[in-house]
Amino acid sequence: MSEILMPEILISEEGISLSGIVKSFDPRKRPALNDVTARIQGGRITGLAGPDGAGKTTLLRLLCGLLLPDRGRISVLGLDVGSRPDAVRELTGYMPQKFGLYEDLTVMENMNLQADLRNVPPGERNDRYAELLNFTGLSPFTDRLAGHLSGGMKQKLGLACTLLARPRALFLDEPGVGVDPLARRELWSMVRKLLTSRHVVVWSTAYLDEAEACDDVLLMNDGELLYAGPPGDLSDRVRGRVFLIRGGGGKRRLLVGPLMQKSQTLDAVIQGSAVRILTRDRGEEARSGMDALSGAFSTELSLAAAEPRFEDAFMDVLGGARAASPAIADFFELKDTGEETVRAENLVKRFGTFTAVDGVSFSIRRGEIFGLLGPNGAGKSTTFKMMCGLLAPTSGRCSIIGLDFRVAPGAARSRLGYMAQKFSLYGELSPRQNLDFFSRAYGLRGKARREKVDHVVAAFGLAPYLKIPTRSLPLGFRQRLAMGCAIMHGPDVLFLDEPTSGVDPVTRREFWTCINSAALRGVTVMVTTHFMDEAEYCDRVALVCNGRLAASGSPDELKAAAAVSFNPAPTLEDAFIRLTEQAEEIPFSRTKT
């Protein structure tokens, strides 16, 4: 077992203690949790971070008494979970990772049902409803079906229902997944307002900026606890080993591969116009190689120390980023860059009297990565579906490689690859069967089809999973399979609608290595994301609000546009929130997560 880096923490019966917890679902496999010992304080938000399969959800279900450990002891608010699980459940509230309410019931109907299930006394309900609806901002939407709420509003409804019985311990399983940065910040503000010294909050997250905002963090991997304590303490351990390489400009994407090949480089990612690297040493190897890199790419590069982030420390503890297969680039023929390949002209889409997209125009060049950002319900996915030919615009025009979807829809679709926001493969089929089906749908036949399928299996490491139902795959491998299906025919254009939603940071690195490989071969990439660090990887981004284009430019240009006197160097998340609130004409919030 890995050594646990855990500072001494004072604990009272108001918190949680875990001692030697082991939980296994299959004796033939590694335990889901293996000898986990930790202490969680009351009055603080404790983040639960780690890659897919780390054991985060299993741990949360143990804490609220939904599962019992095979070995070890858990105490929640002074109650032993093993001997008194019913008493523990009465004091705790658990918000599952997937939306667990009924989409065909209204907001109020869901709250009534949950009040019944949580034994909320009838005489207290009206006051409690009013309090929570006001708290979450859902008062105007009580008659709306839950299925018609935006992602952020669904999470607020889930939180309101979880809080109906006034739980002392609140367990939130990745509540920010699929939620835009503004809604995530609102969720954080709500939970902070709830917190008192008598409350315990455990927040599982796939967003490392969220983990960094927690008071304490439990960092897990393969069922083991690697670190417990304040996130800043872990970030400080990589101080002096994080750097920004500037001067690459349009060639910065080419720098990532050579940097990752260096023996002392643990991680290399694009950050706006720069490349951010994490090293094992104090930067000596990178510094000594600057002149050679500058000469190789005919540009003047500079290396400067950067303030460490929790994400850097996370990658350090896990041993660095995993290199994606170089075979991914082989799916694409090398194309000249620069020419316009995607064009949207004054796109409008109405559903009855509701206008989802209102006059959106943009163009994307070959080899460019273009990010489409915006709050939930802003019109991003509708725009995406029109660009892919899945929705016909009410008015306006969209084209791919000069092919208009209204004139030549089949020819246009054959030139693109599409990865949907929600997993869109066939869950009952095996990965091999899905690959066979989609290869035929893309017109691949005979030997060429077999070679492409085998290529996807090798490039994305799918060989161990080929015969099981796709729905049983770990999330990261489901997404790898979906990406493989989207690129196997070597498209000229890739449309990726939140391709890494819910995927852990290590797997997200692999995805972006794939995306960068495609762009370097001249493929045009259009991507939506709620991860602002991913938006930094884009050449340009466009911000959509209320169906309109509110701002566009490079990530650095958007950050500069959002700078204000009290925040002269905003992050891209700050810029997203600032520009969104300006576009929606609502007061700008200075509150950070």
Q: Tags for this entry?
A:
alpha/beta; six-stranded mixed beta sheet; disordered N terminus; disordered C terminus; 593 residues; 21 helices; 24 strands; single chain
Structure in words:
It contains 21 helices and 24 strands. The chain has 593 residues and is α/β, with parallel strands linked by helices. The strands form five sheets. The chain has a six-stranded mixed beta sheet, sandwiched between helices. The chain has a six-stranded mixed beta sheet with strand order 20-21-22-17-23-24, with helices on both faces. Residues 1-12 and 587-593 have low confidence and may be disordered.
Q: Quick summary of this structure?
A:
This protein has 593 residues and is α/β, with parallel strands linked by helices. It is 34% helix and 24% strand.
Structural class: alpha/beta
Largest sheet: 6 strands, mixed
Radius of gyration: 24 Å
Q: Strand fraction band?
A: 15-25%
Query: Biggest sheet, strands in spatial order?
Result: 6-7-8-3-9-10
Summed over residues and divided by their number, the pLDDT gives a mean of 88
Oligomer: single chain
Helical residue percent? 25-40%
Distance between the termini: 33 Å
Number of H- or I-type helical stretches: 21
Write the layout of secondary structure elements.
Blueprint: E1 16-23, E2 33-40, E3 45-49, H1 56-63, E4 71-76, E5 79-80, H2 85-91, E6 92-95, H3 107-117, H4 122-136, H5 151-162, E7 169-173, H6 181-194, E8 200-205, H7 208-213, E9 216-221, E10 224-229, H8 231-236, E11 242-246, H9 252-260, E12 265-271, E13 274-279, H10 284-288, H11 290-296, E14 302-305, H12 310-317, E15 340-351, E16 354-365, E17 369-373, H13 380-387, E18 395-400, E19 403-404, H14 409-414, E20 416-419, H15 431-441, H16 446-459, H17 475-487, E21 493-497, H18 505-520, E22 524-528, H19 532-535, E23 540-545, E24 548-553, H20 555-561, H21 572-583
Parallel strand pairs: 3-8, 3-9, 6-7, 7-8, 17-22, 17-23, 20-21, 21-22
Antiparallel strand pairs: 1-2, 1-4, 4-5, 9-10, 11-13, 11-14, 12-13, 15-16, 15-18, 18-19, 23-24
Helix pairs in contact: 3-5, 4-5, 15-16, 20-21
